[in-house]
Amino acid sequence: MERGESFLTLVDSRSNITKSLDTLSLSSLSSTSLNESFYRVYKERWAGLIVIVLLNISSTFNWLTFSPIPNISTNYFNVSLTTINMLSLEYMVVFIFVSFLSTPIIEKYGITRGLLIGALFNAIGTWVRFSATYFDEASKRFAIVAVGQTICAIADPFFITIPVMYAMTWFNESGRTTATMIATISLPLGEAFASISIPYFVSEQKDLKYLLLLTSIGATALVFSTFFIREKPSTPPTFTASQTPEDFLPGFKKLVKNWNFWKLLLGFSISNGFMIALAQLGSGLLTAFEYTETEAGWLTGSMFIASLVGAGLISPLVDKFHIHHFALKTSVPLTAGLLFSLIFLVRPNNFLLLAIVCGAIGFLHLGVKPVFLELAVECTYPLSANISSSVLWMASSLVEIGFTIAMDQLREPVKEKRGLWFEGVVSLVFAVLILFYNSKKLRLEAENIHPSFHNVINVLEKRDDDP
Fold it and tell me: CA 89, CA 75: separation in Å to the nearest integer?
């Protein structure tokens, strides 16, 4: 018994799984059969993922309600373009502060309750915004809309940070990046939907009332959809999904000491920051170069539509071949180079070329975003996926605020394109940092080792039981 007992003392944390191996014969010790015996995935995982996608689309649409129609919005509320941009900016400010509460709430009460809390705030905020349309005085309308926008913004951290945690809870190693991608593309999908549809739907000020009513009805319907999401599967999809994650505060302390995570954080934040700043300020910049609001909407929309294609192609390839590092170190520098090229391409009568470049930017940017999120889990395992994801998004929101303010201040004089110069140069500098990312994929390694671990346990126990 000495060999078996000495080995088992080293792995007592997995003893509960080891005991269940007594029912298996030595003829079924392949990695595949062991995984099938202990772990499985369920079809209902896709239903929950769809609900998360719809909630994120609703939240993103609320965030960008006024950005695609800057002229109509400024006239309706009788405020400056900078003030209209603040309606989008407050989402980022609220995100940072609420994330410190939403992350431990989700950790303690789970995915389902976290989504329900977010959906309630999202719905309440939209109805508050709609109520503003019944006031004749522009200043009152804007004040009430700002309050409603803030309530909507409280929902955002509950929706954005959950996908990585949901993917780890319900999907195995061959589908996690794709699941994260599907949930993540809901953000640009909402941005594309808002950028393209709002300018068409709202052609004059009175149309804003009906737009806000429709968003309120949709947000309310999504509250009820959260009741159909199960917290976790009866049987976990992987070994790592079966483990209890570390508490928020101890995990956060370890996170800040992980240098590879810092590289991901900076790259993710800089990339997201400029894309969000473009989404909010792009229409105002392009209309200054003789493009209509509709054309500006199509250019912004082309970036987000192409991003869906990029995510749909890149993430499945990363899942199949586990080429996370290659995808990261090629997409980020290429995206930075394309952002730099906008300095020279944003000029009158250049719609087609701008559409191509904007599409390429979107293709690469969103294609690699799920890779950022998954690698953050890989390099910090066994810390909770929710913690690493939340910190990435918090940092991203902080950078987005700074970049949006900076590019708004650099808007004038328009012809000098100072905002685009700022964006291009900073993107190139931080793209270099990503080339030095070199962490192992710790979660994947744990899952690959786990089946062979069981093989050894079973063989040792068999030997110990022999006369």
Answer: 19
The 10 Å CB-count burial string (b at 16+, else e) for 155-183 is bbbbbbbbbbbbbbbbbbbebbbbbbbbb
Reported as a single tens digit per residue, the pLDDT across 252-273 is: 778 888 899 999 999 999 888 8
| Phi and psi torsions of 197, nearest 5° | -80, -40
| Helices 70-77 & 259-287 angle (0-180, nearest 10) | 80
CA 105 from chain center: how many Å? 18
- The Cα–Cα gap between 151 and 227 comes to 21
Contact present, 199 and 65 (Cβ < 8 Å): no
**pLDDT, tens digit, 9 for 90 and up, residues 327-354:** 999 999 999 999 899 889 888 888 889 8
Mean pLDDT, rounded, for 226-245: 85
CA atoms of 198 and 208, how far apart (whole Å): 9
* CB 215, CB 352: distance < 8 Å: no
| Preceding omega of 382 cis (within 30 degrees of 0) | yes
Contact 57, 119 (CB under 8 A): no
- Output the DSSP codes for 12-63: GGGHHHHHGGGGS-GGG-SHHHHHHHH----TTHHHHHHHHHHHHHHHHHHH
Strands (E), 268-384: none
